[in-house]
């Protein structure tokens, strides 16, 4: 072989020509991503810092480093990788939420290649026997939900349509591997999450009290300790999310499970906005929150807090572009710029308006509007199921008590005899002193006394009422209707939107006489004061048909 100038000529690697072939920018970047992920036997980026320090992620040998990444050496696949744990659950869950959100919204997601590379590495671990990922990691990070969404025909990733079929095959193979390894627990992974919800999940240290009259008391925190203003600002960041206000009370950001201001050492520490309405003034950027109800509902104490800064929590019942789609979210620090209130004599309601301004130098509101994320919505669906089953248990116990009471009355038929005697008293002949004369002479006197008693004594109860109702089969739907009514929406409008009976008539049942309605319904309806649909006085009751919200328009 000839030598030129005493220097050896470097022989180029044939693979280098293929790697430097001209490609479009997008294809080149995707090709680099595929090569990068195909060369990784373990997802060290998703390992916790503790796991990395202990050396649980395998190191690359010098022989493997010397080989091109596109042609890994044979020892790479022959040598079994030791079992590894220590994945960072928060990082994995965040990746799963990001990709699932992009699938649900049908938009491109730059982390798609990252997610598929990770799943490919996990599949490789399952194949060589290392089984680096544990069942608890899959459950806590909702990786099974990510796989289900990828395989769901409703979602198609628009970024890589040519490779999407291969990606589906990859996740199907991975799911089969997990089914073979975990078997029953994997099929019941949702039940595992359901059981963990009140133990170590989002419902820990809160107790249901669904038979309470006030809906705000349906959940209560076991040990709620309110954080100070400084502690709350440091420990709880904007975007934190809870299932209900009792969970927020448990974590200390508010001092009650009710929608009222939380007082701090230096003023108002927090204010939950769960009902009412928010409007944005795009001219000055101010946010105006409007609320109406009784005098106790309009937070009169805030009149002395103009200029104060406090924490705002928004609920999903709030009519606002900033409201979360489920649960309650902490949206950061706000300043009250103005407080005003007035009384509407027509509706007989008090009104309050707060002008709010968000404090700068904190996480932008645009970054948290997508919260709750898919994994949190999974927990929300479990919470709805948990609350529904708890309500069914309460209803079942109430029905059993009522049934036992009716059965006990059936065993004592003689107890009804005094009622029959009272009803038949007007035909009792023993009340006369002197035959027909006494009977005839006292008849007019008795009628006169009865008339006087009716006018001067206790008034006779109504025998018929003009009644409206809103019937909801589900407890959650009834709560939504109550929230609308508390916000000042007309009764007939709420009935048309929510009622499952007489919706077109605005819930109107017309005039009803005693004995023509369900006993529970009739008892509360005939005791209710008449009111109008603009300012209704309503009450709720549970019957065998569902949940009723009742108002009366007239009595006679």
UniProtKB/TrEMBL annotation:
Residues 61-75 have a biased composition (Low complexity). Its EC number is 5.2.1.8. It catalyses: [protein]-peptidylproline (omega=180) = [protein]-peptidylproline (omega=0). GO terms for molecular function: DNA binding; peptidyl-prolyl cis-trans isomerase activity. It is an enzyme of class 5 (isomerase). The keyword Isomerase applies. It comes from the Eukaryota. Residues 13-24 have a biased composition (Polar residues). Residues 1-89, 422-461 are annotated as: Disordered. Residues 462-554 form the PpiC domain. Residues 423-452 have a biased composition (Basic and acidic residues). GO terms for biological process: rRNA processing. Signal peptide: none annotated. The keyword Isomerase applies. Transmembrane segments: none annotated. Keywords: Isomerase, Rotamase. Belongs to the PpiC/parvulin rotamase family. PIN4 subfamily. This is peptidylprolyl isomerase. It comes from Fusarium langsethiae.
